[in-house]
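Help needed: design a sequence for this.
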């Protein structure tokens, strides 16, 4: 079945089964390799993208439900090659270790900060449930705090 998807501002048509997880459509059909497979049950967050601005785990999200949504992957987060403040903070604070979970983590944090520009630690803990097997959580929180303070200074 054909589905029209708007990914990173560009409309793409795919011919897949309606229940195909969006993760596999984005990776295998459209080539967005920044969307990672981690657990397959929407628990780890490695597959997180933005669906109409909301952080969404795609490994259990059927492609038919994604049609008509505005999808942003990690590849579409930067604009004209300019990193977002979250991406820049990730570099400055040297957040990644292995890096496998980081695209999903950045997408989750970006969605949180778009919705709640000055989150409390409680807000962060509630919204960012992505799993980092390397345990870089202290650096993740530091990067989030860097973005918050830089936005406040601007």
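Sure. Designed sequence:
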């Amino acid at each position: 079945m054909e589905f029209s998807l708007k990914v990173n501002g560009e409309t793409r048509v795919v011919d897949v089964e309606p229940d195909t997880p969006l993760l596999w459509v984005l990776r295998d059909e459209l080539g967005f390799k920044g969307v990672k497979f981690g657990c397959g049950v929407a628990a780890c967050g490695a597959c997180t993208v933005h669906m109409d601005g909301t952080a969404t785990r795609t490994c259990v999200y059927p492609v038919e439900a994604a049609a008509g949504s505005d999808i942003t992957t990690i590849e579409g987060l930067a604009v004209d090659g300019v990193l977002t403040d979250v991406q820049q903070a990730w570099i400055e604070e040297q957040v990644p270790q292995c890096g496998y979970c980081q695209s999903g983590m950045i997408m989750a944090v970006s969605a949180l900060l778009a919705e709640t520009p000055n989150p409390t630690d409680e807000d962060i803990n509630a919204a960012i449930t992505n799993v980092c097997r390397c345990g870089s959580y202290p650096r993740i929180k530091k990067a989030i705090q860097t973005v918050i303070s830089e936005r406040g200074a601007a």
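The chain has a mean pLDDT of 95.
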